[in-house]
Write a structure and sequence with these properties.
Rossmann fold, five-stranded parallel beta sheet, globular
Amino acid sequence: MKFLDEFRNPQIACQLLQEIAATVTKDWVIMEICGGQTHSILRNGIDQLLPPHISLVHGPGCPVCVTPLEMIDQAIAIASRPDVIFTSFGDMLRVPGSEKDLLQVKSEGFDVRTVYSPLDALELARENREKEVVFFAVGFETTAPGNAMAVRQAARKKISNFSILVSHVTVPPAMEALLSSPENRVQGYLAAGHVCAIMGWWEYEPIAEKFRIPIVPTGFEPVDILEGILLIIQMLEAGEYGVKNQYNRTVNREGNESAQRVIREIFQKTDRNWRGIGTIPASGFCLRSEYAQFDAARRFSVDHIQTRESPNCISGLVLQGLKKPTECPVFGKECTPAQPLGATMVSSEGACAAYYQHQHIKVTTE
């Protein structure tokens, strides 16, 4: 725990806060991409301790939150078949579809299981040849290598009763789409450290150059986040732009090249619909044609399902950094973690869930 304690050290955090306050002279808007960073910011009261010149807004860095509603309904349609064992990480089971969620499907007697790895789902397929086993492949570039490996192993071992429902999204196109919006407020990005651990930060260099903004790959502990904010403020105040890496104990420029190779082998880029945001070109992964036999959407003919969002949910505006969760009229009332209207409330990384869980915390430096 020693190295973790260092990045939670209150004395170091206070020093960084003092340096930020001494550096900032103008109003700046910074977006943290990752939902894990959002929770850390609110849990540790960082948003309350920063100088008033700095506004933090919360981006679309929660893969559960940006999984489109029609994909949830496709998963529910597949899971509601008696010949299917439907598997997923646990945080997807409570995400509401248009009428129900996967936990409700499970309560109706269908075989819905939580797994800790797509390879667990592959093993279930090997052990249950009379069933179709489907894994819900959701996430950013972080989870893509494991899902790609499961498909590669299924192909090599000829496990034909295994497939994945793919809803992978990638971070750089979303960052660029937000910056291109006429409503954009973001002047600097805290990039998601775990995504950069896989992909590196070379993909962010052309974005920083094009939009003339600072981008800082950042970790998840309080000192990480404060140091990342300081680096961005120093660059903004100096009129500089580019990529600086705060998370150097985990991230390098090139990333994990072996993981990137297996992603390229199994997946290819595709347009992807982001919940509450819309379709972003070339912002997701889909299976390459040579692995199409493992595509659950095609196998079960559910890719035609389309669904409309609840008009009362403003999660799209939250994910774009245009609104705070507390600005939603149904926040904490009709929409709670027990009865969520949108994925930003139900997901463990969702901004609405973070506000609901941590909004009561008051923090001072005394």
